[in-house]
Amino acid sequence: MNHGVLIIGTGPAGVNTAETLRKFGCKEKITMLSKEPFPPYSPPLMANYLETRGASDLIFWKGRDFCKDFDIDCKTSAEVGKVEPKRNRIVLTDGRFLEYDYLVIASGSEMWIPIKCECPAEESKEKYYNFKSLTAVSKLLKEVDKGANKAVIIGAGFIGMEIAITLRRIGLSVLVVEMMDRILPRMITRDIAEPLESIVRDMGIELLLNRKGELLKGRETAEELLLSDGTVIKGNLFIAATGIKPNISFLSGSGIQTQKGIRVDPYLRTNFDNIFAGGDAAEVPDFITGNIYPHAIYPEAVKQGQIIAFNILGENVHYDGGLNMNSLYHFNLPMISEGAMIAEEKADEELFFSRNNVIRKIGIKDGKILRFELVGDKEGAGLLHTLMTQRRDVSRIKDALVTKKYNQARHFMSIFGP
Ligand SMILES: Cc1cc2nc3c(=O)[nH]c(=O)nc-3n(C[C@H](O)[C@H](O)[C@H](O)COP(=O)(O)OP(=O)(O)OC[C@H]3O[C@@H](n4cnc5c(N)ncnc54)[C@H](O)[C@@H]3O)c2cc1C
């Protein structure tokens, strides 16, 4: 190798590629690029960064000196504008170019904002804020420091709920608008959402469900949000948490195949032999349903980064597919959901159990676990995970599983086998 491995992105996917390469003996040059001005950071820890108003270093989860420690040339504020696979090089937006032997695209995702804005302020003024990158969080924090005190959040997915709870904790008034009938609509069903919604309301957060944000308006900068039912909501900090899209616009014209995200084979290789892609930027098959889409969660970014490193080292490691998994700690109530997303595939049967603030729900399809949701008590999540990922037929034990009679379930399994 002459030019070594070039990694676009210093998020969990990029960092895990670089770290694994070094840990498993790669002596070649490794270069990492981030368009942001920060050392590698972990997005799930941005809530902590905001809550401590930037005082905590926890967000730099591998240490601020990660690049030095692993002998990696990290270039910050270096945005890739173009990839030229036939010349084995990338071109930065400032015109510089860098060559590579292997390229890893781990450019993550960005906020997707479908709501128009009629705010005649100059371009430099932020209309929608967001919580998708540390750059975005830093802008938001500046507004809070300047006195913004009424936040309106559009979208009650996990990013929306995380920012809502964090802003409330630091004293802002917070209102969340969600077009679906519940919070966390992709992750959990109505029965599971209800207890979480009461916790959120008890925190002092206002929730407007079944209401769609249609237009953001203001004379100078954003001042009010118009909803589909005609309601007007005033605020001084409008935050979009309306969904994400892979960061792949810089690939246009490169010949690298993309659809919802970057297309990859089971070894996370793109249609060019020496170019790999992983994390939120890549689309991968779902482990349970086989549907192909970007699985934008931390553990998958980590796993994919590690697999890419092994494959660059010539190991031919197969990626088995992404598994949706969410466990939010912000509600101060144990909760976990795993498996196919709600809108992705319908269960044949939904088993439900509720007692003493504990709710358990298991979706079954063709005798196998399609998804499970637990609130109030996560005990048994490991067993459910194993049965689901091993694609076991649980027809005989499903009632014991939902009512948490695990000994009975195990007894059945020992008699009838898996
Ligand atoms: C607020 C928040 C909370 C979250 N909480 C959880 C959680 O609790 N559990 C969970 O599983 N997941 C969570 N996630 C999702 C998780 O953080 C992502 O799935 C993960 O960060 C994806 O890693 P990645 O490396 O693919 O991309 P990212 O972390 O998005 O990193 C992308 C990198 O690419 C760089 N980049 C992009 N474009 C360019 C370019 N053109 N040139 C140069 N550099 C570029 C960026 O600067 C960045 O360094 C959360 C996400 C957010 C935003």
Strand and helix layout:
Elements: E1 5-8, H1 12-23, E2 30-33, H2 46-51, H3 66-69, E3 73-75, E4 80-84, E5 89-92, E6 97-99, E7 102-105, E8 109-111, E9 116-118, H4 134-146, E10 150-154, H5 158-169, E11 173-177, H6 190-202, E12 206-208, E13 213-217, E14 224-227, E15 232-234, E16 237-240, E17 244-246, E18 262-263, E19 275-277, E20 282-285, E21 292-293, H7 298-312, E22 325-326, E23 335-339, E24 349-355, E25 358-365, E26 368-375, H8 381-389, H9 398-402, H10 406-416
Parallel strand pairs: 1-2, 1-7, 2-3, 7-19, 9-13, 10-11, 10-16, 11-12, 18-20
Antiparallel strand pairs: 4-5, 5-6, 8-17, 13-14, 14-15, 20-21, 22-23, 23-26, 24-25, 25-26
Helix pairs in contact: 1-7
The structure holds flavin-adenine dinucleotide.
Describe this structure in words.
With 418 residues, the chain is of the alpha/beta class. The protein has three domains: 5-110 and 245-312, FAD/NAD(P)-binding domain, CATH 3.50.50.60; 113-242, FAD/NAD(P)-binding domain (3-Layer(bba) Sandwich), CATH 3.50.50; 325-416, Enolase-like, domain 1 (2-Layer Sandwich). Helix content is 24%, strand content 25%. The protein is built from ten helices and 26 strands. It has helices at residues 12-23, 46-51, 66-69, 134-146, 158-169, 190-202, 298-312, 381-389, 398-402, 406-416; strands spanning 5-8, 30-33, 73-75, 80-84, 89-92, 97-99, 102-105, 109-111, 116-118, 150-154, 173-177, 206-208, 213-217, 224-227, 232-234, 237-240, 244-246, 262-263, 275-277, 282-285, 292-293, 325-326, 335-339, 349-355, 358-365, 368-375. A five-stranded parallel sheet has the order 3-2-1-7-19, with helices on one face. A five-stranded antiparallel sheet has the order 22-23-26-25-24. α1 (12-23) packs parallel to α7. The longest helix is centred in the C-terminal third of the chain and has 15 residues, at 298-312. The radius of gyration is 23 Å and the shape is globular. The model has no long low-confidence stretch (mean pLDDT 93). The structure holds flavin-adenine dinucleotide (FAD).
